């Protein structure tokens, strides 16, 4: 009998990655929740989502052997809950929430790596004068305790900027914050965290070279198996691409790995994959931890596949099945790989997007290229969900090359062959 693996947020792109794994022959993949139930939704009824996932698992012949997810809220938050309910391998809910709750996570980090995190504090955006309660001096970032894709994250330099963004935060923060609080309270997290009046984090900006460490914890053993560079647009704080493998010196990579392992052990994360975002500041030769995500980054999956010959979905699946992951070999078709986030920075209406034929033609002409559009003709960019605060993502473009410089060269060739036309708002 095959093992039933349940996915929180099943989608076709990642399902195909899972089906290509050696373990796929022994597994049947099922949707605990479909992607349509957690994306482009009007709200998150966490009780109903949990009940739906539990019912589907119970109704599946043969029971459950593993539960996984590669998506952020609410998928990653539900994995430990379902794992505990059905007695399959998985991390504890508390360790996951410690990672996901930005302020709680900073408090935990402060106990073991105080020199590797920025100055921070919490505040309530619904205060009459929230700026008066903030101890950190600008410039600083403000962001909700729970978010993803930099949703409602703003860089603040002046009082006027702060006051400009607070109404938007007040209007939209409860889209994720309230359902997240529901989980904290339902699963008995510490009252000083679950019942905090504050809901937003302030922290000093970090600078330097940004990258992400991909790793896992198996029976308390923390392993880092890849480091991906995060490269931002020159004039904005939005990412332009992820590039693998990292070009950072081994000494810096090892320094990040040591800091990362300290925090992961302290938080108590186990039987879990993770990715941790860092900055390296060359002027001070210091590394700084930005945030911890207790899941694989599905944005990096195709990069690992191009370079290693297999995506790191395999690491996720092996951990979920209670097995120590096999080391990643270097059997890929390319030496380097990147995911480009093709963006625009002004709102408007999409009047033209590439057709399936256009995309297919590019993939034939430039082998290894994958184009995933996020918009269709007629879409209003201002109505797209979960965009960062400064841009609109039009498409993801995955590219492989045998030279690092070849990645950007191929990307420009792709842009010459596909068209997104935006009619800008007045």
Your description of this structure?
This protein has 426 residues and is α+β, with helices and mostly antiparallel strands. The protein folds into three domains: 3-88, Rossmann fold (3-Layer(aba) Sandwich), CATH 3.40.50; 119-203, Dna Ligase, domain 1 (2-Layer Sandwich); 209-424, ATP-grasp fold, B domain (D-amino Acid Aminotransferase, Chain A, domain 1), CATH 3.30.470.20. It contains 13 helices and 17 strands. The protein has helices at residues 12-19, 46-58, 75-86, 93-100, 102-112, 159-172, 174-186, 191-194, 250-267, 301-308, 313-320, 356-365, 404-417, and strands spanning 3-10, 27-34, 66-68, 120-123, 140-144, 154-156, 200-203, 209-218, 221-232, 239-244, 272-281, 286-293, 336-344, 348-352, 370-373, 392-401, 421-424. Strands 12-11-8-9-10-13-16-15 form an eight-stranded antiparallel beta sheet. It has a four-stranded antiparallel beta sheet with strand order 4-7-5-6, sandwiched between helices. Strands 2-1-3 form a three-stranded parallel beta sheet, sandwiched between helices. Strand 1 (3-10), helix 1 (12-19) and strand 2 form a beta-alpha-beta unit. Helix 3 (75-86) runs antiparallel to helix 4 (93-100) and helix 4 (93-100) packs across helix 5. The longest helix has 18 residues, at 250-267. The chain is globular and about 55 Å long. The chain starts with a strand and ends with a strand.
């Amino acid at each position: 009998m095959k093992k039933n693996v349940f996915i929180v947020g099943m989608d076709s792109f990642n399902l195909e990655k899972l089906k290509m794994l050696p373990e796929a022959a022994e597994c049947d993949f099922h949707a605990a929740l479909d992607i349509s139930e957690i994306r482009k939704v009007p709200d998150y009824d966490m009780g109903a989502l949990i009940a739906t996932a539990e019912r589907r698992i119970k109704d599946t012949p043969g029971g459950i052997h593993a539960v996984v997810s590669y998506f952020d809220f609410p998928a990653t938050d539900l994995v430990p809950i379902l794992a505990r309910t059905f007695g399959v391998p998985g991390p504890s809910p508390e360790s996951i929430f410690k990672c996901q709750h930005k302020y709680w996570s900073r408090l935990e980090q402060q106990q073991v790596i105080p020199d590797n995190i920025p100055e921070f504090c919490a505040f309530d955006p619904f205060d009459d004068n929230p700026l008066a309660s903030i101890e950190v001096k600008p410039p600083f970032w403000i962001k909700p305790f729970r978010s993803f894709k930099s949703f409602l994250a703003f860089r603040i330099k002046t009082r006027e900027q702060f006051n400009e963004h607070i109404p938007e935060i007040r209007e939209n923060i409860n889209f994720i914050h309230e359902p997240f609080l529901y989980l904290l309270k339902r699963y008995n997290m510490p009252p000083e965290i679950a019942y905090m009046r504050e809901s937003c984090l302030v922290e000093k900006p970090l600078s330097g070279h940004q990258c992400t460490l991909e790793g896992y914890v198996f029976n308390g053993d923390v392993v880092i198996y890849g480091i991906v560079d995060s490269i931002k647009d020159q004039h904005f704080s939005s990412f332009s691409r992820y590039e693998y493998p990292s070009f950072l010196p081994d000494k810096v990579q090892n320094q990040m790995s040591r800091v990362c392992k300290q925090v992961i052990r302290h938080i108590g994360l186990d039987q879990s994959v993770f990715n941790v975002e860092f900055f390296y500041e060359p002027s001070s030769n210091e590394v700084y931890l930005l945030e911890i995500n207790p899941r694989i980054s599905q944005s990096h999956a195709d990069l690992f596949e191009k370079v290693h010959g297999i995506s790191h979905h395999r690491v996720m699946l092996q951990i979920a099945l209670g097995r120590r992951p096999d080391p990643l070999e270097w059997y890929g078709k390319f030496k380097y790989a990147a995911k480009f986030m093709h963006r625009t920075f002004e709102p408007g209406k999409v009047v033209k997007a590439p057709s399936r034929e256009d995309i297919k033609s590019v993939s034939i002409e430039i082998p290894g290229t994958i184009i995933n559009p996020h918009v269709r003709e007629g879409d209003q960019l201002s109505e797209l969900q979960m965009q960062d605060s400064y841009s609109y993502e039009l498409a993801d473009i995955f590219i492989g090359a045998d030279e690092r410089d070849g990645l950007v060269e191929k990307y420009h060739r792709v842009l010459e062959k596909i068209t997104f036309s935006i009619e800008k708002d007045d």
